[in-house]
Amino acid sequence: MSDFERVAAAASAVAPPLLEVTDLEMHFPKHEGVFVRREVARVRAVNGVSFTLRPGETLGLVGESGCGKSTLARAVLQLHRPTGGSVRFKGQELTRLSGEALRHVRRDLQMIFQDPYASLDPRWTIGQIVAEPLLNFGRPSRDELRARVRALMLTVGLDPDWVERYPHEFSGGQRQRIGVARALALEPQVIFCDEPVSALDVSIQAQIINLLEELQQRLQLAYVFIAHDLAVVRHLSHRIAIMYLGRIVETAGRDAIVERTRHPYARALLSAVPIPDPKLERTRERVLLEGNLPSPTEAREGCDFASRCPLRKTIGASDAERCLRERPPLVPAKDDANHLVACHHVS
Q: Do the beta carbons of residue 308 and residue 289 sit within 8 Å?
């Protein structure tokens, strides 16, 4: 375990969780028929996810497109009402809240959206966009509102005199900074970052990541950072969780998940990440997956990854059959209680 992971583990052991998600499910019904609508299937976008998040901690969420990362974030925030499971924020069950009670909790749970071009209203000025949360949760005077908006613009590295401009006058990186300012307006404790740098150039990505790190240290924010780029997630996260088809299949400290990968899907995912050293890139082993991705509408008894798993080819017939009939739970590895893996054949 690295020094970074020891410090993070020690902090986690002391601080109680801010956010506790248990067996969360988000299923979307699929209907057919014109005059009589009937449910014919269910898309299991999130299918039994559990994790915790503590103050000042960053949980990185990684997985291929369509695995349920963004839907998970929206279900936790109650933007989608979960089909099942529990979401507790500071001990309060969010799935049972509605109306004003839920609205009050949302002050502390904010989101930075993926697309900086679509998440800002083009008809509003930047000042109006950043001020909207403040107006929704209070009645500040005009002077107080102006001072707060200007302070938020400075916090994210933008000129306060730009508040009268419109989104189309800004670059992608500047727009994402505006999104960060909007998320910070109510001084939240948890921010979900839904691929906030995937639409930006590499140099701009670095600026936004450094900004998020600086804000976390200054304000003791907790992040759930959703991304495809494992290098970005490893740089920013304390812990990393890898999702496949609506479930978390492996989670551990950021260095352990990269250096001591256990789950076969996680190994395949990591092997696809390019290495900047050409010599190492030519010599390293690639894990190629065969077969088709299972449909999220299918109800399976066994492991979701069984049809594509390269490990099943190396084990006995009885063990391979077990993968098809018995779903592996997410349990600690024998040699590391903080490293959780959902695989029957990985110790």
A: yes
84 within 8 A of 23, measured Cβ to Cβ: yes
Model pLDDT for residues 51-97, shown as the tens digit of each residue: 999 999 999 999 888 889 999 999 999 999 999 999 999 999 999 99
According to DSSP, the β-strands at 38-53 and 19-32 are antiparallel
What separation in angstroms does the CA of 217 have from each of 153, 212, 213, 214, 236? Answer: 18, 9, 6, 5, 12
d(CA 213, CA 303): 36
- Whole-model pTM over 0.90: no
Which fold, 3-341? Rossmann fold (3.40.50)
Give CA–CA dist 221/57, Å, rounded. Answer: 7
| CB 342, CB 246: distance < 8 Å | no
β-bridge mates for residue 111, sequence order: 192
Residues 18, 111, 176, 275, CA torsion sign:
positive
pLDDT in tens, 177-221: 999 999 999 999 999 999 888 877 888 888 888 889 999 998 899
Kind of pairing, strands 239-244 and 58-62?
Answer: parallel
The first and second tokens of residue 47, run together, are 């299918």
Give the position of tokens 């707060």: 148
Q: Is the pLDDT of residue 298 over 70?
A: yes
Beta partners for residue 224, in sequence order: 59, 192
